[in-house]
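hiii so um. not sure if this is the right channel but i have a protein structure encoded as tokens and i wanna go backwards to a sequence. like what aa goes where. can anyone help
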């Protein structure tokens, strides 16, 4: 009989909870609703601030990438540019003939 007693207690508890839940929700709604609204507002503010921060970070990274690319282009141009002669009209090929 212990099983049927436990079953009856469980059913009674379930019915009692089912009857009390609407009353508790109606009682707590005026308190819980403003708290939920404040929590949602705070979440939205955090999300927006995070989005702004990520956008600023992306802009900074884009600026750095553009600067690095410009430096690389300048370095390539400097490496490919012919070296200016020390003296105008000076021919390096003459040095080889003198040294031999």
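sure thing!! here u go:
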């Amino acid at each position: 009989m212990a099983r049927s007693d436990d079953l009856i207690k469980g059913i009674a508890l379930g019915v009692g909870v089912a009857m009390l839940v609407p009353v508790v929700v109606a009682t707590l709604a005026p308190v819980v609703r403003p708290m939920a609204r404040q929590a949602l507002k705070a979440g939205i503010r955090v999300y927006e601030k995070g989005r702004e921060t990520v956008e600023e970070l992306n802009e900074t990274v884009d600026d750095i990438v553009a600067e690095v690319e410009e430096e690389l282009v300048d370095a390539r141009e400097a490496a490919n540019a012919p070296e200016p002669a020390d003296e105008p009209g000076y021919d390096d090929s003459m040095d080889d003939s003198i040294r031999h």
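oh and The chain is about 85% helix and 0% strand.
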